Amino acid sequence: VGELTLVSFLEPIMRHPTRRTFFALAAAACVAATGCHATDKATQPKAAAVTTADIQKSLTPEQAIDRLMTGNERFVAGSSIRTNRPDEVRATAAAQYPYAVVLGCIDSRCPPEVVFDTALGDIFTPRIAGNFANQQIIGSMEFATKVAGAKAIVVVGHESCGAVKGAVDQVKLGNLTSVLEAIEPAAAAVKGTGERSSKNEAFVQQTAEENVRQTVAKIRSESEILRDLEKSGKLKIVGAMQDLDTGRVALLE
Ligand SMILES: [Zn+2]
Questions:
Q1: How far apart are CA 81 and CA 204, in angstroms?
Q2: Which of 16, 69, 82, 185 is most buried, most CB within 10 Å of its CB?
C-alpha cells in the first residue's frame, strides 16, 4: 500500500480539521457577539463513554474481547448502558477508534451493537447471511485492524440460523444459492448420525458451530496481514455462538 493510499484510507478516522476550525470560529463568534461561554453544546460536546485513541491503543486483544463479553452480559441482564446516542454521535463525529470487528449474520435478532451493548465507534460490523467470510469481507477486516487499529475479530454464529438451515437442505434460490453454497462445506464436515436436514436441530446447531470454526480458519489462511497481526500478538481471531433464547454469546473453544 502506497503512502498516499494509506493516508486517504486513514482520513475518515482522523480528526476533521474543517470541523474543528468551524467549532473554533463558532465559539469565538459566540463569545464576541453575546459573551456566552464555550460550554455551548455545539462547541464542547458532552463527554460520552466512547472509545478514544488512548483506550484503543492501550487495549490488548484479550481485553477487547472481554469488553464485548461484558457488554453481552449487560444485554442479557437487561442492563444495557448504551442509550445516549446523541452524545455518542457528538463524541465520535470527528474520529473513530473501534477496538473490535464482529462478523455476524444478517439475522434480525443478532445486531452486534445491541447484543454486545457497544457505543457508536466501538466496533466494525460486517454482516452477511450465515456469517461466513469472502475476499471482500476479509479485505474489510484488514482495513479495520491494520489500518484502523481494531484488536480483535469475533465471528458470531447463532442458533436456528436460516442460512445454515438453507445450506443443510441445499436450497436453490436466485443469488441466495451462492450464499448457501459458502456454508455447505461446514455441513459436509459435520459427522454423526441422524437426519441431515434442517428438521434435525442438533445437526443445524453443529453445522452453525462448524461454519464459525471454518470461517475463523479461512480468515487466517487467506489473509497474510491478519495472520501476521495475530502472530505478533496485536490481534486475536475467535469464534462464538449466540443463543437466541437468552441472548447470551459464548466463545467457542
Ligand atoms: Zn443467521
A1: 33
A2: 82
